[in-house]
Amino acid sequence: MAREDLFNYLHAIDDFDVSPLQAVLAQAEVVGEPALPSREDSAALAWVGATYDHWEKHFPLDQGIAISLRRIKPVLGLMALADNQFYTPGVHPLHQALDNLYDAAVGWQDGLGRAGEPVQKLIDQMIEGALACLQDNGAGLMALLRESAKSAQRLQTRTHRMGQRTADAERGQLRAARARETAANMINAQITRHPLPADIGDFLTSHWFESAQLVLLKFGEDSSQWREINAATVELLDTLAPRAEDTPASDPGSQVMQRVRQWLMSLQHDQQLTDEVISAIEFTHLRVAKGVAVDRVATSLIPVSATDQKASGDAELAGIETGQWFLVQARKGGMLRIQLAMMQPKEQRLLFCNNTGARVQSMDYASFADLLNQGKAYLLDTGASFSRSLAAVIGVDTEEAIARLTGNPVPVRKQREAAPVPEAKPSGASRPAPAPAPAPKQAQPRPREEPARATAAAAPQQTPTERPVPPPQPQPQPQTEIEPDELPPVQVASEPPSQPDLPESGIPELPMGTWLGFHDLDPPLLAKLAMHDKVRRLLIFVNRKGIELRRLHEDEYMELLQDGQVDILETKTNFREQVERARQRMARHQT
User: 262 φ, ψ to 5°?
Assistant: First the structure.
């Protein structure tokens, strides 16, 4: 068959579920074409078909994207016939474009809505543009492919950046929760020593509790500042201990009050309230020092959430890293494509995001290790996927095979370093026979010529609707053919799935009245969110009296958030508790 006729058949392909060679032979049979492609051309097209089947099977994409991407098959066939550079995996711009497209689309799945449109649009533009360039004798094709690869890389960068923002916000919440628990345990241990005046107990469980959290968030639990606020708490309780009637008057604790004022960080921007609180404590000190009887009550403990630490799943998660994509069985059926965005060893917490970088699921190490061991979660392999499939179908799928091909010794590497191509298929999966390729002008890896027709006959045996099988992993993996509806719903002892935390602007959705700690100022600023104007992209923060303390543009706020200068807190008690405390305070003053 003449090359010109073969090119015309490739241009006219409309059945993208079969390999390019099958599509050409089907068209030739319909028109009664007696000639067949040459052995060299048949080998090249068979190699392309086997490569695409391997790529689709071992590097699965969501069905909607996978079906759309099959339209690139005619372009692959034409490039395999027209460009000798195509026979070196990873070198041709078309290889690089498909490699980057896969990495950008690996997390795409139906249901993302507008957030998933950029990936779909990029695939459509690349395929339609490539076909148009081929109709024009290939003019501008290479530039189009290189630009498509760059666009796919930009999508990957955006997904990574949005996931990092979500992870940073999650880390801030975990730090705040840990600080709250540590500060509460410290204060609870002191207020149980002896009864306290009601005003003092209220101060310790509110303003002093908030200040202790700020010290922890700013300086850490191992800092000298935290040790000092611990010591100040102990000394304050010592000066307020009940005294016997015959005990002489003692020093009212002026040094203690200086330390209390120094570490009262939650009120440093409200001098009037600070003076009121300190004056009330000093007045109580004077009465206690002179032996005057004061009313004492048992102070209610600060509630602390009970933490049920599960057994660590570190051993089962060996090799798992942030940035990896997983196909996970959902509770209500179906499969989710999620990316590991955060690993917090101390809290044993994992955070997963979707293709838009929005929060999807948070769970502990042990729960995710159970999913992996039960075959309800798979690692999705990424990185040079199409290029690796090109080499894998001709047997170049290990470092030893590359060494035999090039004559270079196998480098000594760590076990976790990946080979340039996927490992062999699991047992039971049929592997395409090695497909031949045209002889390139340079010494390059190429398929053999003899088994060409055997490969062409073997490749079509794979059903287009067959569910893609995830690539084999170093850790124990489940069986290769598992349908999602055959698996029971997953029961994971973790938070229920929530709606995405981040809108398109990237600003975390916070309720009005949320308290935030700003560490870019000295001393740190504690303020609550009073307004988020999404039209002017403005956030306004006030103190407890409603006086504006800070006004930030969304971009400025995001920069502070990314730099770790903002902690999202919610340390205030609820409204009913505040009303009850105010009522009790008024009753004491009236008596």
Answer: -65, -40
